[in-house]
């Protein structure tokens, strides 16, 4: 930003136009009192793509003679990683400051036996990865070959565990199994084909499919409970040291992870879908606030596509 001749004190519009286009996110203008030499200091707090900067321009009638730029401390930085500069825009998933920002890649397990048979899976460990599912896991591994992860978290349930082990094969970094990444428990519906469940328990099954947040068995609301489980999982993942994490789990808990990160309630459970082997990516700032970068990426399922993000 070079010097410019000004006949009078620069206006806010003139100062804004002199800044790089990418830096014009949001300004807060403050005027400082004139000193004995009739020089005015104008301070601008500028939200940029990399954070908030304070630009101080000291102007005299003869022109701009001093421009300084400093990065503000984290306590004053944009709460959303500088995407926009206002508080309350997102909700912290940790309620505490992290040591670093993080990138989280979420992967749904490959095709399972009960996926193929159209059975209700829930938290059952009897549904295992099929040969097709194993090949999908290999495609996920190949698609992420250029990525460096600090740790992999996985559900301990068989179909997700096997997918994670295939993706993580040969890596020295830890593979951690979290109970908070288990799938929702669906009680006596688990193992039934969808057709049989609909026939034998029509009201209950319809509620599960069409109004899942109010689906209740023995006084328990599985989807509502899943929201609490998802918040627990986010804390465990984000409070672990490292900056780039891989998470392998199931569709229902994935929906809950996505919705809790985006501030969506259990009523929005079926508003998001993730295919077998599909990937989602979040960036999370130091305040534990998440921003969705990619949803249900599946290009690698149909090609040799590799990711670099």
Can you tag this structure with a few keywords?
Rossmann fold; single chain; His_Pase_superF_clade-1; alpha/beta; six-stranded mixed β-sheet; 2-carboxy-D-arabinitol-1-phosphatase; globular; 309 residues; four-stranded antiparallel β-sheet; phosphatase activity; His_PPase_superfam; 22% strand; 26% helix; 8 helices
Brief summary of the model shown:
It contains eight helices and ten strands. It has 309 residues and is an alpha/beta fold.
CATH architecture of the largest domain: 3-Layer(aba) Sandwich
| Strand order within the widest beta sheet | 7-6-8-5-9-10
**CATH level-4 homologous superfamily of the largest domain:** Phosphoglycerate mutase-like
Number of strands: 10
Helix content: 25-40%
Family: Belongs to the phosphoglycerate mutase family.
Organism: Oryza brachyantha (malo sina)
Active site: 109 (tele-phosphohistidine intermediate), 183 (proton donor/acceptor)
Pfam family, one: His_Phos_1
């Amino acid at each position: 930003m070079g010097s410019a001749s000004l006949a009078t004190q620069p206006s806010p519009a003139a100062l804004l136009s002199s800044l790089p286009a990418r830096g014009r996110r949001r300004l807060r203008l403050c005027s400082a009192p004139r000193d004995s030499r009739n020089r005015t200091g104008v301070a601008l707090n500028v939200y940029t793509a990399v954070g908030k900067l304070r630009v101080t321009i000291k102007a005299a009638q003869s022109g701009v003679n001093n421009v300084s730029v400093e990065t503000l401390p984290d306590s004053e930085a944009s709460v959303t990683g500088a995407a926009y500069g206002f508080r309350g825009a997102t909700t912290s998933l940790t309620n505490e400051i992290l040591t670093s920002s993080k990138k989280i890649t979420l992967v749904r397990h490959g095709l399972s036996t009960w996926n193929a048979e159209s059975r209700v899976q829930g938290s059952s460990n009897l549904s295992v990865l099929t040969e097709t599912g194993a090949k999908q896991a290999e495609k996920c591994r190949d698609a992420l070959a250029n990525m460096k992860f600090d740790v992999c978290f996985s559900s301990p349930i068989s179909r997700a565990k096997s997918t994670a082990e295939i993706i993580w094969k040969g890596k020295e970094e830890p593979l951690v199994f979290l109970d908070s990444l288990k799938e929702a428990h669906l009680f006596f519906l688990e193992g039934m084909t969808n057709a049989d469940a609909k026939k034998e328990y029509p009201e209950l099954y319809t509620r599960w499919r069409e109004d899942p947040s109010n689906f209740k068995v023995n006084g328990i609301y599985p989807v509502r409970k899943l929201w609490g489980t998802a918040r627990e999982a986010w804390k465990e993942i984000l409070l672990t040291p490292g900056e780039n994490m891989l998470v392998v789990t199931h569709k229902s808990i994935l929906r809950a992870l996505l919705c809790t990160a985006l501030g969506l309630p259990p009523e929005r459970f079926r508003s998001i879908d993730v295919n077998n082997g599909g990937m989602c990516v979040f960036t999370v700032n130091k305040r534990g606030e998440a921003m969705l970068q990619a949803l249900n990426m599946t290009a690698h399922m149909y090609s040799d596509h590799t990711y670099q993000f």
